[in-house]
Design brief:
alpha/beta, Luciferase, domain 3, GMP Synthetase, Chain A, domain 3, nine-stranded mixed β-sheet, five-stranded parallel β-sheet, 15 helices, 27 strands, globular
Length: 524
Amino acid sequence: MPYQNVAELFMLNTRRFPSKTALIAGGRRLSYAELNDEVNRLARGFLALGLRPGDKAAYLLRNCPELIEVYYALQKIGAAAVPLNHRLAAPEIGRLLRFSRCRLLVCGEEFQDKLPAADSLPELLLIHRRESGAAASGPLSLRAAAALGGGEEPALFRDAAAVSRLQFTGGTTGLPKGALRTHRADLAEIISVMMSSRMGADPGETVLVQCPLGHHGGHSWFASALSSGATLVIGDAFQPAEILTAIERERITYLLLLPPSTYLRLLDHPDFGRYDLSSVKLVQSSAGAAAPDVVRRIYQGFPHCEVNYGWGQTESGTGTSLVLRRAMLAERAPALSSVGLPMPFLEVMVADAAGRETPPGVVGEALVRGPALFSGYCGQPEADREVFLPDGWLRTGDMMKRDEDGYLYMVSRKTGMIKSGGENVFVQEVENALRLHPAVEECVVFGMPDAVFGEAVAAAVKVRAGAAVTAAEIRAHCRRHIADYKKPRLVRFVGEIAMDEAGKIRRCEIIKQLCKEEAAWISD
């Protein structure tokens, strides 16, 4: 591949389509030339502030044009982007900043109260706000930083093996796991997404993304859209009327909403039928939200679309994909319950405990291999040894099976992870937060089926002798230590938590029993 920097695909389109609209967001419309000019000003501003290739720079931003500008500015100068989830609590943000050793942080003004103590902050703090000036003391505004540079192209950093992005995925041990993704890996991922979705076949595509751009999925889609020469429309908080208006006004062709339940909320909007949605030709979802009744409703609401969904991880870069065609619904094709086939450039092998490929129908762990794989976890060589196998294979921790035609079927997800409303919630992290409460002696956290969120975070709590605490107090305590979406929505107080002879909690036995006793749970 001749490209050595992930920004080169975007830069190619600034030359191909300079006057074409590249980005629509937050009341702004930027052409490819205008967006590139903003990127260059920030890139030169970052250089003037002392940022250098190999430095890590974080951003804590809502979906906004500035997030795109910051990301590409960092790529051009060879700094590694570190997206942070703005739903995290201050202690979590502080831990991730310390762990990643970021030199710079760009923070949305509305999130300043989430910033940790000064000793946890990078040496360079920029606040994103509309005014261009900076206070006499305190952090510099993002606009003031951009004013330090000019619109000329900076010297482009070119090293495909260098880290482009450090993407935090959480950790089953409660420690952060920062997946290191190189320029080469992200280039392979972007091209794979473009090929799989046929996004690059027509530069006239208009792509609407309403999911966190700081997540791997959101990043993948915004980078693919701008790399293909499409017009990117980004939304922030879910506003059905705004999304429907944007689809009609901008003639959206590709639609990505997350979490998957968002599509049902959109379809249920009382004015849904009043909008012209005929331009939409691909609706992207994710595995687990492809129940035939839901897909039928999407097809009824978007008469010219196809529904595409699949499976993937930050570590794998790409994953699997399946277009749920209308004929498949009519025929009740068995593949409807699969997660599809591997995307371009990715090999998937279902293997037994000895690493041997299993025959069709036999469950094993999904191993993946290809150029889009991440290069390892930041500062965690022991975690690397657990997941990387000889010959380039990566252990996903996800249990699957394959049918005779090669379609893959998810059986169970990673141990210790709950998928709630499109967010990954790691059991150990929630349990660690619960155990910080002085009234909590022991706890068990797991996921329970939920019609809206897919899974709800549930916690069985044993209270210390003589102590008292309510479910509301438990949830309020968790909000102070972890993101709000990670708090237990279901709480159950129990007298005992069974353990085996070695003192380990009998998780499977406890969870099986607790799931039978729904009436005893205290819901949020």
